[in-house]
Every structure is written in C-alpha cells, then in structure tokens.
Amino acid sequence: MDIYLIKLILVHLIGDFFLQPNSWVKDKERKKLKSAKLYMHIAVHIGLIFLIFLSFGVWKMALSIGVLHFFIDAGKSIFQTKKNARLLFFIDQLLHFSSILLVWHFFYKGYLDISYINDIKTWILAAGVLFLTLPTSIIMKVIIAKWLPESDDESPKSLQNAGKYIGVLERVLIFVFIITNHFEAVGFLLAAKSIFRFGDLKEAHDLKLTEYVLIGTLLSFGIAIIVSLGIVGWTR
C-alpha cells in the first residue's frame, strides 16, 4: 500500500478518534454549524497532515481534506437524530475514507489493486465466512430444536439475540484462526467461552440446559472447524 495513503488514514484515525474529545462531539451535535468545536476539529485534521507529512508543500491536499471533512461532518450534524445516530456514524466514516481515497488518487495518482476480486480463492473465502454466519445459525437451530429446554426462552436479563450473534462471532473467529494457521487460538476461544458460561450454568442448576448449551457449543465449533479446514484444503 502507498505510504501517502497510509499517512492520510493515520491522520484521520488520530484526528477523529484520539484528538476529538466527547465534549466536542456533543457540542457539534447540539450547535451544529454554529459549533466552534466543528471548526477546531477541521483545523486539527489539517494541522495533522502538515505534521505527519513534515511539509507545508502539501497545503493543497490538506485544504482539500479539510473542506471535504467539513462538509461530511456538517451534513452529519444537521441530519443526525437519536434514531439514526448509529447508522450515520458508519456512513460518516465511509464517506471520510472515500474522500481520503479520492484525494490520494487525485494528488498522487494512486490506485488500489483489486485484481484479487477475480481470484477464485477470494470467492471461496467469502462463501465460507458467509456460510458460518446466519446459514449455520439456522442449520443449528433446526438440528437442536427438539432439545430446546422450555425454560430457554429469551430471558429479560439476556440481550436480544445475543446467543445468535455470539455464535456467529465465535465461528468467524475460528475461521480466521484456522485460515491463518493459529489452531491454538481455537482452544483458547473454547476455554474462554467455557469459563464465562460455567457461572451461568452453575447457577441455573438445570441439567437439560447445560446439555443443550454443550451440544450447541460443540456443534458450532465443529461446523466452523470442518468448514475452515475444508476451505484451507480448497484454496491451497
């Protein structure tokens, strides 16, 4: 990857996440375009470009980044509500990184090599990850439905769909560990989950629930391991 692109990404990460206090964020949300913190935030980004590039000769690029950053943040502050705040955060970051790529391409004639998209290995890996998310959750639900304890309904003390998302995350992590040849991390993950689950199961005093959780965990890990090993074999 081009060093100039890396520097621009570094500027954004430092400026948006390290040098933007929460008080600035709240001030921008409350006062919108009248917020002095909005303009201070833009100034920080411009200053960081000069600092990291160690040159004032990049002023055109710094100004371009600053102007684009201003319009993106201003738009976010104007349209943001409590209901769409989470969505706008990700849209905001996507637009920032897109603007960085645009400026980098314009000033440094940079381009990203996306030839890997046409590589069959890329599509096999994508299919494997996708299969281990919701499709595997549905398959597991069908398999172990007959053993579902009556008391295993969504508890008020439990986050909604938390179990499903935990399962998805653990399978994706197993996939990454095996693809990168770190099998020992799979054992660490299983041990960590067992430790966290032990307290809940011990307090429940329910043998059926314990067996149900054990079957679900082993089935989830088993499917993830088999799929991951299969993909490793296919992509060699």
Automatic annotation (TrEMBL):
Keyword annotations from UniProtKB, A to Z: Membrane, Transmembrane, Transmembrane helix
InterPro entries: Phage_phiKZ_Orf197
Sections of the chain in a coiled coil: none
Name of this chain's protein: DUF3307 domain-containing protein
Spans traversing the lipid bilayer: 87-108, 120-148, 168-191, 212-234
One Pfam family of this chain: DUF3307
Native source species: Pedobacter ginsengiterrae
